[in-house]
Design goal:
This protein is α+β, with helices and mostly antiparallel strands. The protein has 12 helices and 19 strands. The mean pLDDT is about 95. The structure holds flavin-adenine dinucleotide.
Length: about 375
C-alpha cells in the first residue's frame, strides 16, 4: 500500500489549494480525482476573484488568495490577469450602497475608487448610458480562465511541488486503521496517509452520505451563457451590476442595506436568483450569467441537467439593458452546480485525521487559496 502524509480527495479548487499548501510545507501529498479532469464548479464558473464581494474572514481569505494567485502566476502561467473589478450601480439605491461600501473598504485599507457615470462610460464604452448611475472600482482584483486555471494548477502541483495526481479514480471509502487513514478507491486499490481531507464538492453519495444528509447543505444550480468571440468588444476585468450590489455579502454591511426595497422591474429576476455578471475570456467571447435555484442534499437531481430558456431569456434581456454589444450571439450555454452551507462552509471532522471541507458556495474561486492556507496551518 502506498503511503503519503496527506491524501486529498477531489481536485477542484478546494482540493488543489489544500494540496498546494501541504506540499509547500514539504508534505508528501496524493490527490485523488474521480474524473479524468475536474469538470465541476471549478471549470464552469466565471473565473472572477472578487474579495470585494465578501465580508469578514472571507474578505481576508479573498485578499490573501489574490496574493497567492499572483505569486504562482509569476512562476508559472495559471491564467491570472489583473484587470480589476467594477460594480455598476443603476439607480440611487445601488449608488448609495456603493458609496457606503467605498467608505468601509477605505477604512479597511482596501484600494478602491468611486467612478462617475462619465468615467464608467469612458472606461467601458459598451455600457448603455441609461443604465449607469456610477460605480465602485477595485483595481487590484484578478480574473482567471476557469477552463484553464485548474488544469495548470494541477500541472504546477505535479511538476514544481512533487504532488502525486491520480485521476479517473473514485474514492469509495476512507477510514482510520491503526493510527493511519486508509482510502479505498473503486477497483479496491488502497492508499494510506497520516491525514485525509475530503474536498468533494457536491458529490454526496460516494463518501460519508449519512454525514452529508444531516449537514444542512444545499446545492445551487446556476445557468451560464457564453457569446461567440466578439473581437471588436473590449470589456476588461470582472463586471458586476446593480443586482449584484443588491445580492453580495459585502454590501450587506452597508448601513442602508437593511432598508432597501426591490423595484418592480427586478422582481422576476430576483425570483430566479438572477444577477448579471460579465467576464470576457482571452478569445474575446463574453461569459454572461447567472441564476440560482436550490435543492437540499438527497434531492439535487430535481434541479435537472438542462438549462431553462425562460431563465436564459431573462438574463439576456437584462444584459441588453446594460450593454450595447450583441449579447445574443450565444455560442454555448451550460449549468453549473455548487454546494453551499448556511455557515459559509461545511467543516466536519469524521475522526482526528479525516476532515471534510466543502460547501464553500459561490466564493470558491475567490477565497479557496487563502482559506486552505489557514486550514492546512491548523491541521498539519
Ligand atoms: C456557474 C458558476 C459560477 C461561479 N462563479 C464564480 C466566480 O466567478 N468566482 C468565485 O469565487 N466563485 C465562483 N463560483 C463558485 C466556485 O466555482 C466554487 O465555489 C468552487 O469551484 C468549488 O470548488 P470545490 O473544489 O469545492 O468543488 P468542485 O469544483 O465541485 O470539485 C470537487 C471535485 O471533487 C471530485 N470528487 C468528488 N467526490 C469524489 C470522490 N469520492 N473521489 C474522487 N473525487 C471526487 C469531483 O469530481 C470534483 O472534481 C461559481 C460557481 C458556478 C457553478
Amino acid at each position: 500500500m502506498k503511503n503519503f502524509d496527506l491524501i486529498v480527495v477531489g481536485s477542484g479548487i478546494m482540493g488543489a489549494f489544500h494540496a498546494y499548501h501541504a506540499a509547500k510545507k514539504g508534505k508528501k501529498v496524493l490527490i485523488i480525482e474521480k474524473d479524468n479532469f475536474p469538470v465541476s464548479a471549478t471549470v464552469r464558473n466565471f473565473g472572477q476573484a472578487v474579495p470585494s464581494g465578501s465580508a469578514g474572514k472571507w474578505f481576508n481569505y479573498g485578499r490573501r488568495s489574490l496574493e497567492i494567485y499572483k505569486d504562482i502566476q509569476q512562476q508559472f502561467d495559471i491564467s491570472v490577469r489583473k484587470n480589476g473589478t467594477i460594480y455598476i450601480a443603476s439607480d440611487d439605491t445601488e449608488w448609495q450602497l456603493a458609496n457606503e461600501l467605498f467608505d468601509i473598504h477605505q477604512r479597511q485599507g482596501y484600494e478602491c475608487s468611486l467612478l462617475s457615470k462619465r468615467q464608467c462610460l469612458d472606461l467601458y464604452p459598451e455600457l448603455k448610458q441609461d443604465y449607469v448611475r456610477g460605480a465602485i472600482y477595485y483595481p487590484n482584483e484578478v480574473s482567471v480562465e476557469p477552463n484553464l486555471l485548474i488544469y495548470r494548477i494541477i500541472q504546477y502541483l505535479q511538476e514544481q511541488l512533487g504532488v502525486t495526481y491520480l485521476n479517473n479514480t473514485g474514492v469509495i471509502n476512507c477510514t482510520d486503521v491503526s493510527g493511519k487513514v486508509v482510502v479505498t478507491a473503486a477497483g479496491s486499490q488502497l492508499y494510506s496517509a497520516d491525514k485525509a481531507i475530503i474536498c468533494s464538492g457536491y458529490v454526496f453519495n460516494l463518501l460519508f452520505p449519512e454525514i452529508y444528509a444531516q449537514s444542512g447543505m444545499v446545492v445551487s444550480k446556476l445557468q451560464m451563457l457564453q457569446t461567440v468571440p466578439l473581437t471588436n468588444v473590449s470589456i476588461k476585468g470582472n463586471i458586476l451590476t446593480g443586482l449584484s450590489i443588491r445580492r453580495y455579502e459585502s454590501f450587506e454591511q452597508c448601513p442602508s442595506f437593511k432598508n432597501i426595497t426591490t423595484p418592480e422591474h427586478y422582481s422576476e429576476l430576483k425570483k430566479w436568483g438572477i444577477h448579471i455578471l460579465f467576464k470576457q475570456a482571452i478569445d474575446g467571447s463574453v461569459i454572461i450569467g447567472d441564476s440560482h435555484e436550490y435543492a437540499p442534499v438527497g434531492r439535487t437531481d430535481e434541479l435537472g441537467f438542462d438549462t431553462q430558456n425562460h431563465i436564459n431569456e431573462l438574463m439576456l434581456k437584462e444584459a441588453e439593458r446594460i450593454m450595447s454589444f450583441p449579447v445574443r450571439k450565444i455560442a454555448r450555454a451550460w449549468a453549473g452546480f455548487y454546494a453551499q452551507h448556511p455557515n459559509d462552509i461545511f467543516e466536519f471532522d469524521v475522526s482526528p485525521n479525516i476532515h471534510i471541507r466543502t460547501g464553500i458556495g459561490g466564493k470558491g474561486m475567490t477565497t479557496s487559496a487563502g482559506y486552505a492556507e489557514n486550514m492546512i496551518a491548523s491541521l498539519l
